[in-house]
Design a protein that fits this description.
- It is a single chain.
- By secondary structure, the protein is of the alpha/beta class.
- It folds into four domains: about 55 residues, Phosphorylase Kinase, domain 1 (2-Layer Sandwich), CATH 3.30.200.210; about 240 residues, Rossmann fold (3-Layer(aba) Sandwich), CATH 3.40.50; about 200 residues, Dimethylsulfoxide Reductase, domain 2 (3-Layer(aba) Sandwich); about 130 residues, Beta Barrel (Barwin-like endoglucanases).
- It is built from 27 helices and 29 strands.
- A seven-stranded mixed beta sheet has the order 5-4-17-16-15-6-7, with helices on one face. A four-stranded parallel beta sheet has the order 11-10-9-13, sandwiched between helices.
- The longest helix is centred in the first third of the chain and has 19 residues.
- The chain starts with a strand and ends in a 10-residue tail after the last strand.
- The C terminus is likely disordered.
Length: about 750
């Protein structure tokens, strides 16, 4: 039988590494994927997730048609029927209760899609709701808040300059498994090995001896949740031993006096017992950081999703500042995305604030216009003015991702109307009245709007759809039609009008801005220059042209446009990271605010914690190379190997408790029975469960995942403990009790 085979290039959308892939397509179906050897960013690297592209693209459990609830049962419907059902259900809620009664949850995969970057903000703005929740308050919100308070912008991300640093400290991260997070770096492991080959040193700080720790020159294993105190001790040593060297930063820093005074309470000897790290080891770390020709500290989930997550995230960059390693080659630098606005010179900004409003029930302060996802259930359950009456979820599964999923599960069952944009019938979307599935990745475009702002080397790459749509709308159209309903136009309006309105509004603003590269030019002229094509491509072309590398709509003929990008299918290398602090700063003072009052105040809470008694057992999360949070558990190619939901425990703890194969774990939110993996790769007193499992609820459509469901680690967490500055749920360092599963009905576990 004759088969038609060809290849297509594609950026992988499955994690933050953004590797280039070469897809093999046979008779209109992806049958294989390998690394693109010519990709300017990844140079052929591929991980098991990327290699499984075809399997995920063709997953038989992936929804291909909408589901609409009829007589209480989700049944397949036409797209017209589904959009009409959204219009009817959502419009009824809007008429009776207004847009402020609609909650919106945006999940992690939105960071990996064109539609997820461009359209949810329009939906939220149209509703006028403050009931906005996302995976950010289960992940990186502490970093956003710390950056906002220090630099005036919550998206002024610092990333380690991996290709040039001489000394790298990784704290609370396992990039050899996660592939990097808030530091977009294809082949992170390869970059660490290159660091060592050129004579550099790697220090890993993590309670577990991870795959990344195994590569390190030194591994420090602190008690979970104590990263902030450890970093404060490093700061104290830098001041105490006159090791502070600001270099070219000296004229751009304020707050040195305040932070030096505060650090006096965190000498290594004062934090050693609390952290479980010898004072001498802390001093050596501080001295080596100061002595290195260049150095960078990089912190992630283990530093972020803890009680002092914002303080810890702040101190990561405080150390980078004090050692003179902020904004210089080999240190912690600011990427420059191709869609970031063109630099307009140093100018003070309005700064950054949190708590501009508070949640209705518990009074949690907003951060980055979001409320803590841990508060979502109570906002649905609690009657009164502002109660959530309808939900829109976009590519998210908070029933598994958020604390106390059982409670959220029950709450969602009581929502008046719910629409979900998601490819799967999962633990969250099973409550929807309408599910609108986007097409598979092969039929979708790809550009990294978010992740280019985190790349360790500047680049630009675009993947048009590798395969045509098959009589279905793409995700931009799906979200645009929801927006049309919200704006009162109706689902049958022209979805192209959504993009054209954004273009007209943006260009009018740019034309009126004296600092814009298109200041004073007619909007009609600029609009006519945009690429022909779908609305999302026209918006991307606009953003590229207005960006730092753009052609400024013809004013810089050699500048970047979408046409230029399409002519470079393996991408464009835009060079190594460059110093750009003055372009980034948006604080009212125009300086790096090293000692924001909110952080100084919370540091007092940290100081008080130093005297707390140590918990016998605490629970931390764990990353898997073969999955991404709650999805990819439905693919045969990724279901084996180390991708198992087990409770890791030190052998001495297991022997003391009499635990062998199975344990019962109890936390503030409930209890779980889970298989035990005894390993010396974890500190005594620490237990580890991976995040995102628990596929055992009825009414879902992921058959393989349901056949090996694992347990939901977040069910041990009642969501009552949050980082107060960011509203982020404390997911690591949770006190638990543990014992043999056989004792469930007998004596209490210890």
């Amino acid at each position: 039988m004759f088969r038609v085979t060809h290849t297509a290039l594609r950026i992988c959308p499955f994690c933050e590494a953004t590797c280039g892939l070469t897809l093999t397509i046979e008779d209109g179906r992806v049958v294989g994927a390998r690394g693109d050897q010519e990709d300017v960013f990844s140079a052929g690297y591929i991980c098991p997730k990327g290699a499984s592209f075809g399997e995920l693209d063709n997953d038989p459990d992936r929804l291909t048609a909408p589901l609409v609830r009829r007589d209480g049962v989700l049944t397949e419907a036409s797209w017209e029927e589904a959009f009409a059902a959204v219009d009817e259900g959502l419009s009824a809620v809007l008429r009776e209760h207004g847009g402020t009664s609609v909650g919106v949850y945006v999940g992690n995969p939105n960071a990996h899609t064109v539609a997820g970057a461009l359209y949810p903000p329009l939906i939220i703005r149209g509703l006028g709701t403050r009931q906005v929740f996302s995976a950010s308050t289960l992940d990186q919100m502490p970093k956003h808040v710390a950056l906002g308070l220090m630099f005036g912008s919550p998206v002024a991300f610092t990333v380690p300059d991996l290709d040039r640093t001489d000394y790298l400290v990784i704290i609370g991260a396992n990039p050899l498994v996660s592939n990097g997070s808030l530091a977009t770096a294809a082949d992170f492991g390869g970059k660490l090995r290159a660091l060592k080959r050129r004579g550099g040193r790697l220090v890993v700080i993590d309670p577990a001896h991870t795959r990344t720790a195994a590569l390190a020159d030194r591994h420090l294993a602190p008690r979970p949740g104590t990263d902030a105190a450890l970093l404060f001790a490093v700061v104290q040593v830098l001041f105490d031993e006159d090791l502070v060297e600001l270099g070219e930063l000296a004229d751009h820093i304020t707050g040195l006096t305040e932070i030096r005074a505060l650090a006096d309470d965190f000498a290594p000897e004062a934090v050693a017992a609390y952290c479980g790290i010898d004072a001498d080891d802390i001093r050596v770390l501080a001295r080596e950081l100061a002595a290195a020709p260049s150095a960078a500290v990089y912190g992630r989930m283990g530093t972020s999703t803890v009680e002092f997550g914002t303080v810890g995230s702040w101190l990561v960059d405080v150390v980078n500042v004090l050692t003179g390693n902020l904004d210089r080659p080999g240190g912690a630098m600011f990427p420059l995305s191709p869609v970031a606005p063109a630099p307009r010179g140093r100018r003070p900004g309005r700064g950054f604030l949190t708590g501009r409003w508070r949640s209705r029930v518990s009074g949690h302060p907003e951060a980055l216009s979001e409320l803590p996802v841990a508060a979502l259930a109570e906002e649905i359950e609690t009657p009164g003015d502002g109660q959530i009456k309808a939900m829109i979820t976009i590519a998210g599964n908070p029933v598994l991702s958020a604390p106390d999923g059982d409670r959220l599960d029950r709450a969602l069952a009581g929502v008046g109307f719910m629409v979900s944009v998601d490819p799967y019938l999962n633990e969250t979307t099973r409550h929807a009245d309408v599910i609108l599935p986007p097409p598979p990745p092969s039929q979708s475009p790809h550009f990294d709007f978010a992740l280019n702002n985190l790349a360790v080397r500047n680049n630009a790459r675009y993947s048009p759809p590798a395969l045509p749509l098959q009589d279905r709308p793409d995700e931009p159209e799906i979200l645009s039609r929801i927006a049309l309903v919200i704006y009162g136009i109706g689902h049958d309006g022209d979805p192209r009008s959504v993009d054209e309105q954004v273009i007209a509004t943006t260009l009018a603003k740019e034309s009126a801005d004296a600092g814009s590269p298109v200041a004073g030019r007619p909007v009609e002229e600029l609009t006519a220059m945009l690429a022909d094509g779908p609305g999302y491509e026209r918006r991307l072309d606009m953003m590229l042209r207005l960006g730092a590398y753009g052609d400024a709509f013809g004013a810089r003929p050699d500048g970047l446009t979408l046409a230029t990008l399409k002519s470079a299918p393996h991408g464009l290398d835009l060079g190594p990271l460059r110093p750009r602090l003055l372009d980034v700063l948006r604080t009212p003072s125009g300086l790096v605010e090293l000692a924001p009052p909110q952080l100084l105040d919370d540091a007092g809470r940290l100081r008080d914690a130093l005297s707390r008694p140590e918990e016998r057992f605490v629970l931390i999360g764990r990353r898997h190379l073969r999955s991404n949070n709650s999805w990819m558990h439905n693919l045969p190619a990724l279901s084996g190997g180390s991708n198992r939901c087990t409770l890791q425990m030190h052998p001495d703890d297991a022997a003391e408790l009499g635990v062998s194969d199975t344990a019962v774990v109890k936390g503030p939110g409930g209890e779980l029975v889970v298989p035990v993996e005894v390993t010396e790769d974890i500190r005594r007193g620490v237990l580890s469960l991976p995040h995102g499992w628990g596929h055992d609820r009825a009414g879902t459509g992921q058959r393989l995942a349901a056949s090996h469901p694992g347990v939901n680690a977040n069910q041990l967490n009642d969501g009552s403990v949050l980082d107060p500055l960011s509203g982020t749920a404390v997911l690591n360092g949770i006190p638990v009790v543990v014992g043999p599963a056989a004792e469930r009905s007998g004596a209490p576990v210890s």
